[in-house]
Amino acid sequence: MARGNMNTVPPSLADKAGERADTDKLQLYADRVRVYAARVTGPFRRFKWAALVVLLGIYYVAPWLRWDRGPGAPDQALLIDMPSRRAYFFWIEIWPQEIYYLTGLLIVGAVGLFLVTSLFGRVWCGFSCPQTVWTDLFMWVERRIEGDRNARMRLDRAPWTAGKIARKAAKHGIWIAIAALTGGAWVMYFTDAPTLVADIARTQASGTALFFVGLFTATTYLLGGIAREQVCTYMCPWPRIQAAMFDEDTLIVTYESWRGEPRGKHKQGESWEGRGHCVDCLQCVNVCPTGIDIRDGNQLECIGCGLCIDACNRIMSRLGLPRGLVRLDTVTNQFAREQGGAAPFRVARPRTVIYTAILVAVLALMAFGLGNRSTLDVSVLRDRNPLFVSLSDGAIRNGYTFKIVNRARADRAFVLTLEGIPEATFSVRGGPSDVQRAVLGARPDRVEAYRLFVRAPRGRLAGDSTPLRFVLEENAAAGERSVQDTVFRGPR
Amino acid sequence: MPTKVETDTVTGTETTGHEWDGIKELNTPLPRWWIIVLWVTVIWSGLYYILYPTFPGWDGIWQYTARKEVAERMDAVQAGRAAWTDKLAVASLDEIEQDSDLLAFAIAGGRAAFADNCAPCHGSGGAGGPGFPNLLDDDWLWGGTVDSISTTLVHGVRWMQDEDTRISAMPRFGVDELLTPAQIDDVAEFVLSLSGNAADRVAAQRGQEVFAENCAACHGESGQGNREFGAPRLDDAVWFYGGDKETIVRTITKSRSGVMPAWGGRLDAVTIKQLAVYVHSLGGGE
User: Fold this and answer.
1) Whole-complex ipTM
2) pTM of the predicted model as reported, rounded to 2 decimal places
3) Per-residue b/e over A5-36, b at no fewer than 16 CB within 10 Å?
4) Residue A354: enclosing H or E segment and its boundaries?
5) Could you give the dihedral angle defined by the CA atoms of residues B157, B160, B162 and B165, in that order, rounded to the nearest 10 degrees?
6) Which residue on chain A is closest to B136 by alpha carbon?
7) Do B273 and B147 fall within a single domain?
8) What is the per-residue pLDDT for A12?
9) B-chain residues within 8 Å CB-CB of A383?
10) Contacts 24+ apart (CB under 8 A), B183-192
11) What are the backbone angles phi and psi of residue A178, rounded to the nearest 5°?
12) I want to staple B189 with a disulfide (CB 3.0 to 4.6 A). Which of A102, A187, B204, B230 is the partner?
């Protein structure tokens, strides 16, 4: 390629275009090549089925789990209650003020994914990503109705007969039914599941619920049924990011080219001398859910599901050759095997150690936070308009909005006192005036907002900003305590 | 006029058949999707012309106007609040202050009404400025109970169109030559001494007599003020127009007569109730 020539096609595109390159019209848009993944059996396929059953089971069953939180509180174990701004996870109840737990959860999810990817490759993509799980389920439905790879290809080429229409209609009908169940289950995480089902059955469900059921039905049907591998290849950012987690010690789906090449058809009884073990049967290509050829090496489209390993091993066994021509292996081990040796799988590498450290640190922090979680939260908001008020006796008054977040499901009483300015007194709007100590109540599961007016003689102030501390102590044995530091503003 | 459609040898594309001085044009029509979008927009605009008021004299089939839409939305908002505003309409000011939920609603409404109507003079936070009373402090010209605040709101101050307006007039002691400049200087010094700020004790001593004869009738013997006449307290730390001697001399010489409009005819009774409890809640309420 001529250096500096901006019009030159990048080598990757040129390669792809070269495959159908008898025309000199270069297409920047790759036409979709329909993937007809063939059925396959083997340990990877069994693991994939197991993952599918377990994950879908969790997804559909979880919203039905109950957890008693006492009267007046929802009894759904997993619930994100948007209207009343609460998230419930069994015994944990998260308020919007504690959104950092969600941040923590996302960090744990991301770093966990980094760690697993750097060790075992794209197991998330291959086995547990919702896109993979639902695509797998939809493909299973498709196979039951339209048959395996060859039957499906024949059917698609065949003219539109009543039989073909019936099969296609049945397939899409079942897909939409599965999609609707998916969308319905999603909404159950945001509202009481039994009530929602009863409302839908009586056609009394709210427009919002139906809208989201419809939305997730449509996206599930489109992404899992229609778009499939296009989502992984073009829409998802993860394939582009995950290369940064790979190194030569990461397990990836690998074709042993040193053993397989030169490939070629093989007749029974022929010698294996001077040729590779790959018989070019294309089984690995036919079973691939993203329609790639793993023998071209590791590539962006590969979701690491290992179905090609199952397919190749069956052929190798039949031919009496060693299994594992396509295998889950590290680059290091491949080099070693090529030289006739073997390299151990290195679990402890700088990146895995760092990922593990971050993961443990964030988990520990979250566990500590949850363990020491208080049912009391206090915030003090000082008035800024005006900063202070001069009173007729020369004293200065500041206004504060004092909020008590009572996360307990019980009435509580607290004693408020001030520290920092001697002779400072306060008034509570609608409550006591000019006191140094007042009892403030907080109703169960509520945020109580009090207006406080703090008054201090001008001579007791240190300049235009004097530190002031609000001390709130629960009016009970072993009660909670909260100290809020703020300032008291006055004239210069 | 199209002459001859031929196939271009280089590109293999047909020409349009036009020829200008030997120059021919390849026929590369617009993409079908583009044409479809064009026609959809054409049909859309046609429908739009029929359904909406697109030119003078045509109200459109849907009879839509933005003004009507706003009115409908405002009515919907009012209807949504009806349960609360109905309660406010019948409750007395004291009853409102006793009911914490009703009070919260009234204060929220009062805050909005205050920003719309009162903030230009009293400031968005109610802290006022020289000549415009601070509504947060404990110094009130005409009284700081919720009923007094309500009366001031309804009838205004020196608002002559309202018969029941709060009214009083301080004489222009200097302009009308009721006092000499020297006397005014002395009495200003005395006024300062009431809050312990006099610089010249002798002058203040002289001013005391002038004060007793001319000012004490309204402002009180010791300058404690009188809310009957809206006469400010002079013995405290809060100053309406300013507490420096120059400003006090100016006030005595030329007098002051601040005006506040009567809101009784402008705002509805519920809004005035909301404003009264809002102002009363700002910290200085009595």
Assistant:
1) 0.81
2) 0.71
3) eeeeeeeeeeeebeeeeeeeeeeeeeeeeebb
4) helix A350-371
5) 30
6) A389
7) yes
8) 46
9) 125
10) B183/B207, B183/B210, B184/B249, B184/B252, B184/B253, B185/B249, B186/B210, B187/B211, B187/B214, B187/B215, B187/B252, B188/B245, B188/B248, B188/B249, B188/B252, B189/B245, B191/B215, B191/B223, B191/B234, B191/B248, B192/B243, B192/B245, B192/B248
11) -60, -45
12) B204
The answer to whether the CB atoms of B238 and A392 lie below 8 A apart is: yes
Whether the CB-CB separation of B214 and B184 falls below 8 Å is answered with no
Q: Indicate the number of domains in chain B.
A: 2
CB A48 within 8 A of CB A126: yes
Separation CA B136–CA B185 (nearest Å): 31
Structure tokens at A44: 């990877």
- Say which range, A30-34, B51-55, B153-157, has the weakest mean pLDDT: A30-34
CB atoms under 10 Å from CB of B279, counted, come to: 24
Distance from CA of A451 to the nearest CA of B (A): 9
Measure Cα distances from A285 to A17, A267, A293 in Å.
20, 21, 5
Residue of B nearest to A391 (CA): B137
Residue span of the structural domain in which B143 resides? 68-165+260-280
Question: Could you tell me the two tokens for A199?
Answer: 């409302």
- The pair of three-digit structure tokens given for residue B278, joined into one six-digit string: 């809002």
Give the domain CATH number at B148: 1.10.760.10
Q: Return the sign of the alpha-carbon dihedral for residues A41, A46, A51, A57.
A: positive
Tens-digit pLDDT profile for residues A395-447: 999 999 999 999 888 899 999 999 999 899 999 988 899 999 999 999 988 89
Strand partners, A14: none
Q: Which amino acid is at A250?
A: T
Sole residue written with tokens 């705002």:
B267
Q: Is the pLDDT of residue B102 over 90?
A: yes
E strands in A160-282 = 252-255
With bands split at pLDDT 50, 70 and 90, how would you rate the model's confidence at A151? very high
Question: Which of B99, B107, B224, B238 best probes binding to A when mutated, by most A CB atoms within 10 angstroms?
Answer: B238
Whether the CB of B100 is below 8 Å from some CB of chain A: the reply is: yes
Q: What distance in Å separates the CA atoms of residue B276 and residue A162, rounded to the nearest whole number?
A: 78
Both ends of chain B: CA-CA distance in Å? 93
Which domains does chain A show, CATH number per domain?
35-373 (no CATH), 376-489 (2.60.40.10)
Would B6 be classed as within a structural domain? no
pLDDT at A4 > cutoff 90: no
Same-domain pairing of B72 and B153:
yes
Q: Let me know whether B135 and B266 are in one domain.
A: yes
Query: Chain A contact for B144, CB < 8 A?
Result: no
With a CB-CB cutoff of 8 Å, which residues 66-85 of chain B face chain A?
A: none
Q: Contact A378/A484 with Cβ under 8 angstroms? A: yes
Q: Are residues B122 and B157 in the same domain?
A: yes
Q: Which of B114, B136, B236, B277 to mutate to test the interface with A (most CBs of A within 10 A)?
A: B136
Q: Which residues of A touch B100 (CB under 8 A)?
A: 430
Strands (E), A225-373: 252-255, 326-329
Bridge partners of B166, per DSSP, are B157
**Quick one: B249 and B270 in the same domain?**
no
Is B237 within 8 Å of A451 when comparing Cβ atoms? no
Instruction: Please tell me chain B's helix, strand, coil percentages from 3-state DSSP, rounded to the nearest 5.
Output: 50, 5, 45
d(CA A16, CA A13): 5
Residues B161 and B264 in one domain: yes
Tell me the two tokens of residue A433.
């005036």
Contact B137 A394 (CB under 8 A): no
Is the domain of B93 the same as that of B161? yes
Whether residue A439 contacts residue A431, with contact meaning beta carbons closer than 8 Å, is answered with no
- Tell whether B276 and B150 lie within a shared domain: yes
**Neighbour-count burial for B151-184, b at 16+ CB within 10 Å, e otherwise:** bbbbbbbbbeebeebbeeebebbbeeeebeeebb
How near does any CA of chain A get to the CA of B13, in Å?
14
